[in-house]
Automatic annotation (TrEMBL), chain A:
The keyword Glycoprotein does not apply. Keywords: Initiation factor, Protein biosynthesis, RNA-binding, Translation regulation. The keyword RNA-binding applies. Belongs to the eukaryotic initiation factor 4E family. It comes from Henosepilachna vigintioctopunctata. GO terms for cellular component: eukaryotic translation initiation factor 4F complex. PROSITE patterns: IF4E. This is eIF-4F 25 kDa subunit. InterPro entries: TIF_eIF4e-like, TIF_eIF_4E, TIF_eIF_4E_CS. One of its GO terms (molecular function) is RNA 7-methylguanosine cap binding. One of its GO terms (biological process) is regulation of translation. It comes from the Eukaryota.
Automatic annotation (TrEMBL), chain B:
One of its GO terms (cellular component) is cytoplasm. Residues 63-122 are annotated as: Disordered. Keywords: Protein synthesis inhibitor, Translation regulation. Residues 90-99 have a biased composition (Basic residues). The keyword Nucleotide-binding does not apply. Transmembrane segments: none annotated. Belongs to the eIF4E-binding protein family. This is Eukaryotic translation initiation factor 4E binding protein. InterPro entries: EIF4EBP. Pfam families: eIF_4EBP.
Amino acid sequence: MSFTSLQGKACRSSIKMSANNVETENEKNDQISEEVDVCVVDYTIKHPLQCAWTMWYFENDRSQNWEDNVREIASFQTIEDFWALYNHIKPASELKQGNDYSLFKTGIKPMWEDPANKRGGRWLLSLEKKQRNQELDRCWLDAILCLVGDAFENSVEVCGAVVNIRGKGDKIAVWTADANNGPAILEIGKKLKERLHLPGRMQLGYQIHHDLMAKNSSVTKNCYTL
Amino acid sequence: MSSSPLAKQVTGSKAIPTRKVVINDACELPNYYSATPGGTLYSTTPGGTRIVYEPSFIMNLRNSPLSKTPPTYEIPSSLLRGSTPEKKTKSPSKRHYNKNHIDSTKRDTKQIEDEDQFSLDL
């Protein structure tokens, strides 16, 4: 983690003992990801995030208005509080068909009409039906780790991310604020594609919310494709 | 920054990540001395700082005691991890029950109860 590199270097000699103690634990974690580069982590503190985020849930109840079906679950602004939420809710693949999870910056509603979204668009990843079991949860987690970890150079342009569980194929999208900001959109899309480790045949397409409102989503053109 | 909880955190030896920003003219410099050209310095400079976490760093904290602590707010029961998958309770017709044992007026609730108990074993 880059934020604390300076302190890390300065304190290194004084924490040698504790570094040895956690080595075995880190070896276990290396199996999860080879990129683990953290030798010592203080588990007693909470790590602040760049932004506060709110997790939303959409339940497809046709007896109610669409807007009433969009419900806030919780907000968080530390890594630990993110996990406390994520670890206690169902993975996306276990949601009922027609339902969504959304993760948006606190203050932005997961809907086109929100002032932060209305001029924006989304990078969309369409998954095949059979990918729900293997790919969906991994891709969704990778996507939201990009958000909470502030992975994008243009992270101010990012509004949130949505996962739709649908019978004809699940979708994961990252919403951005300004559909006219080409350079930022492309930077975000490239980073997302890299972080999701998508095979070449799987493409991301950028769609403008305004076009989606006007037409059926299946015929909406992509402004950019990666 | 010394009072920040982050300051207590310690990492191993690692090069400080940098990014080069080419300045061609003095007017491209930020207005404030505290800001850095290009906007972001991955360090502790006030005004130029963003908190960036690599995915591996966040993953590494997934099973820490604080991350495992159940949240204080309420999560809808239908969303709780490990609860009965909703799709299972929605399709009672797919299972066969011995309806002779069940009074017809109680059948619906009985079926759902059975379903719940059965689904837990799955």
